[in-house]
Design brief:
Blueprint (H helix, E strand, L loop, with lengths): L1 E7 L7 H10 L6 E6 L19 H12 L2 E5 L9 H10 L9 E6 L5 H13 L3 E2 L4 E2 L7 H9 L1 H21 L1
Parallel strand pairs: 1-2, 1-3, 3-4, 4-5, 4-6
Helix pairs in contact: 1-5
Bound molecules: flavin mononucleotide.
Amino acid sequence: MIEIVAISGSLRAASTNSALVAALATNVPADCRVTIYDGLGLLPIFNPDDEGERTPPEAARLIDAVTSAGGVIVSCPEYAHGVPGGLKNALDWLVSRDAAVAKPAMLVHASPRSLFARAALAEIMRTMSFSLYEGELEIALLGKKPAEVEAILGEDANRQAMREAVQAFADFIRRQT
Ligand SMILES: Cc1cc2nc3c(=O)[nH]c(=O)nc-3n(C[C@H](O)[C@H](O)[C@H](O)COP(=O)(O)O)c2cc1C
């Protein structure tokens, strides 16, 4: 069983990125499990003084989730041409650990327009030594209302695209380990 942890970079209740990772978690091949880390809003602002024995419990929960997963999927909005602070903060908690080193990661996208954030996120995650899978999945949900988002994510073609993307990522994880 390939265990994958998925993280949405948005805290919005009606987030399209969160809807995408939730849909991914329910559209996986039989040999994969996707669980969602949803604690971004609970993490304190990263402070290098608070590492080691002083690591806050929520940061420890994130580090454990990433460490124990075979791979990580991230879906993230773009704010002001950058990566939202909440996700960058979460990644900062992982920088000086082993959690990210050689950990397979895949980016998925709910907006067709978030090109600056995609490039920045890829650069950040490669710098942290994540093993970034080149295949990416995009399902355009930008500006859609929750009912429309649900309908789009429920379309057969999109469900199949999600399953195939997770399958391809799982194959990548198997090749890495
Ligand atoms: C403060 C703020 C800044 C934004 N800046 C950008 C931007 O620079 N480029 C862009 O493509 N979209 C930008 N957006 C739009 C969001 O990226 C877009 O609405 C995204 O789908 C939101 O994701 P969510 O539905 O998961 O919350 C911005 C949205 C907000 C709230």
